[in-house]
Amino acid sequence: MPRAADLGITIGTLPSGPTGSILDVPGVGVGHATVWRDEPSPPLGRGVARTGVTVIDPGGNPFRSPIPAGGAVLNGAGECTGFLSAQEWGLAETPIFLTSTMQLGRVYDAACELLAEEEPGIGDEDVIIPIVAECDDSFLSESRRMQVTRDDVAAALAAARASVGSTSAPAEGAVGSGTGMSCLGFKGGIGTASRVVPTGHTVGVLLMANYGERERLTIAGRPVGRLLPLAGQPTAPPAGSCIVVVITDAPIDAAGCQRLARRAGLGLARTGSTAHHASGEIFVALATGLRAERGTVSAAVALQGRELDPFFAAVVEATEEAVLNCLFAAPTVVGRSGNTAEGLPVDQVIPLLR
Active site residue: 163, 182, 241, 273, which one? Predict the structure, then answer.
């Protein structure tokens, strides 16, 4: 599937990294486990599943070497475990797990088990609160039965570790936790993008897009949602929620990470988000450049004040582009009860941008 850059769509002024994805940040990995199932409805079966798990692994051992982190909430009708402790301590101690709303507990349990099996200090020296965030995919996926298993979480985590150093972007669109998501009236899901700032540091964004109304879809400043000839086409109902994960290799402290996270909302707004009443826009930012061993402080000097301005711009641009990459990658998906999220008609969109 084409990405925004492949279609000649330029977002902002900063250059992208080699893969144009969050994988451009050194040591970062992304893995998906897609759950696609067609069974009779409960109680005879588990119903139709269009769901999954996505893992963003910052590399190394976050329990032994926590990562400066901060978060922001645009609208809080959602859940992200570990968010409060990351805000309080300014540190992330686990990879980040994404899934659907009613699978969050299963993914949390599996994350605790899997990470504890790898690190003997977990549960002995200290406990962990894994960062697990969700969006609602119940328009396409049967949510009355638990569809995700520990094996799915393990597979996504292993795939994330294996993707480190990849020379191409990870899969986007209807994959992993994005399998059942809808965005701006079309099929949504996972999207990612990156930017390189003048200092040479990289800012990567990965998001799970499940928000917005078709009439508000905006691409590179053009009101595409109002310009597309869509008479008679089915449409997904206005969806709510978007999880945005920002990672950079720059030396930025927890307060700076919180400020980075907040800028993700500007990127979403440029695509047509108005943060609906029932929408959960939750943003988390990590900065590996000040990473240090547990109980110690990095010797690096944190960037401050106006030094952060290029990073703010990078987050806004990469977030906007990640949404577009998600939309361009996602095909039409038919889910439970025949509900359908149409893929964005790229061949109709491109002429509108010219």
Answer: 241
Average pLDDT in the chain: 95
User: Is 168 tagged catalytic?
Assistant: no
Q: What is the predicted pLDDT for the residue at 179? A: 98
Domain tally, the chain? 1
> Which domain CATH number covers 179?
3.60.70.12
Phi, psi of 206 (to 5 degrees): -130, 135
**261 CB contacts (<8 Å, ≥6 apart)?**
70, 71, 72, 244, 246, 283, 284, 285, 315
Q: Is 117 known to be catalytic?
A: no
For 209, the 3-state DSSP assignment is: strand
Alpha-carbon distance of 130 to 145, in angstroms, equals 23
221: Cα within 13 Å, side-chain hemisphere:
6
**pLDDT above 90 (res 229):** no
Please tell me the predicted confidence (pLDDT) of residue 171: 98
Q: Is residue 260 part of a domain?
A: yes
Given a cut of 60, whether residue 343 has pLDDT beyond it is: yes
Each residue of 322-333: pLDDT tens digit?
Answer: 999 999 999 999
Does any domain span residue 340? no
Q: What is the pLDDT of residues 15-37, one digit of tens each?
A: 999 999 999 999 999 999 999 99
Q: Does the annotation mark 337 as catalytic?
A: no
| pLDDT for residue 45 | 84
Range of the domain at 208: 5-331
Burial 209-226 (b: 16+ CB within 10 A, else e): bbbbbbbbbbbbeeebbe
Is 354 a domain residue?
no
The active-site residue out of 279, 317, 320, 321 is: 279
3-state SS assignment for residue 280: strand
In a domain, 71, yes or no: yes
